[in-house]
Structure formats: C-alpha cells, structure tokens
Design a protein that fits this description.
Blueprint lengths: L1 E4 L4 E7 L5 H11 L5 H12 L4 E8 L2 E11 L8 E9 L8 H15 L5 E3 L6 H9 L23
Parallel strand pairs: 5-6
Antiparallel strand pairs: 1-2, 2-3, 3-4, 4-5
Helix pairs in contact: 1-2
The structure holds coenzyme A (COA).
The site of coenzyme A has 19 residues, from strand 5, helix 3 and helix 4.
Length: 160
C-alpha cells in the first residue's frame, strides 16, 4: 500500500508494524501522551501480532516511520456482525497534514472491511479537539459518549 502526496513531495508506504518498530513507536506514543519504553511497546506489538482480531500499521518513508495506527474487530451479543475500533493513531511531529493520518485510517478501515466489520468507531479524549475535527473531516460522526471507570484502584486513563 503506497500513498503519494504531490503537494508536499512526501512519499510513504503503509505496512504492518513489527517488533523492530518498537523504538520509533515508543517515540510516537510519547508524542501522543502515552510514554512507554521500547520493551513495553515490543511486548504490546507481540501481543497484537498473535491476535488475528488486532492490527498495527505504520507509515514509513525513506526517513523512517512517520506514524502508527492500531485497529481491532470485536464480536458482540447485541448484533451479529463484528464491529471495528480504531485505537492509537499518531503522526510524528512535523509530518502532519501530509495525508499520513488519512492513509493510516484508510488502512485500518480496509483491514476491518476484510474482516467483515460493518462499522468502525474511535473514542477520543475531550482535549483532542483537533483530532475531533480531523475525524469528522474523514466522515466519522459523533454517535455516543464514552464513560470510563478504573477497575484496579488507580485512575486508569482511557485510551486516546
Ligand atoms: C490527528 C492526526 C492523526 C491527523 O493526521 P495528519 O496526517 O495530520 O492528517 P492528514 O494530513 O492525513 O489529513 C487528512 C485530511 O484531514 C484534514 N485535517 C487534518 N487535521 C485536521 C484538523 N485538525 N482539523 C480539520 N481537518 C484536519 C486535512 O486537511 C486533510 O484534508 P484533505 O484530505 O481533505 O485535504 C495528527 O495530526 C496527529 O497525530 N495528531 C496528534 C495525535 C492525535 O491527536 N491523534 C488522534 C488521537 S487517537
């Protein structure tokens, strides 16, 4: 999967993330506000990699990895078809507005369609106003509210 954006002359390709990407992805997660060590990310990627209901894609140029996204499909009881969730999405600082986010979202959507998911959702923190606008621009609609409760006695920060 390759995307080219003529206006900014940045060319990048989308591929599935591997554990070798752990260091760069750790930097991207820090940019997103979720600092993690390389070893932690390596472990998480390993767990994603063995689950066919989850995926991680990176956008990569000759300069290296520029962004990452993860996706998941879920079965549920109240509807028969599986549904998809897009979770982590982050583009490296200085590489925004070059079409990387759009292409990463498209990659997860295509992957989820391939798993027969009938819809895809994303949850976002209130503070990510720019990302709200990005997703709405991408055709995502506000359809609900996320409520979160910590289960382990700590203040568990919700994803995104
Ligand atoms: C949000 C984010 C992923 C967008 O990625 P990006 O690579 O900059 O976005 P793209 O260049 O692919 O933009 C795709 C389209 O959305 C538009 N867009 C991008 N950011 C936008 C914004 N803040 N508001 C409105 N539109 C926006 C672009 O203009 C572009 O429009 P076009 O294709 O019609 O010309 C990126 O800015 C980012 O990593 N932000 C910090 C982390 C974050 O908030 N992640 C989301 C939480 S999960």
């Amino acid at each position: 999967m390759t995307a080219r954006t003529d206006t900014v002359k940045t060319s990048f390709a989308i591929r599935e993330a591997t554990e070798l990407d752990a260091g760069t992805i750790a930097e991207l997660l820090a940019h997103l506000g979720y600092p993690a060590s390389r070893a932690e990310v390596e472990d998480r990627l390993g767990r994603l990699g063995i689950a066919s209901d989850s995926v991680a894609f990176v956008a990569e140029s000759r300069a290296g990895v520029l962004g990452v996204v993860t996706g998941h499909v879920f079965a549920s009881l109240h509807v028969t078809p599986v549904v998809a969730w897009l979770t982590t999405l982050v583009v490296s600082s200085g590489n925004e507005k070059k079409g990387i986010g759009r292409t990463l979202v498209g990659a997860v959507e295509e992957w989820a369609r391939g798993r027969r998911a009938v819809r895809i959702s994303v949850t976002l923190g209130f503070h990510r106003e720019a990302a709200h606008e990005f997703y709405e621009h991408m055709g995502y609609q506000r359809t609900g509210v996320r409520l979160t409760r910590a289960l382990m006695g700590t203040t568990a920060r919700p994803a995104s």
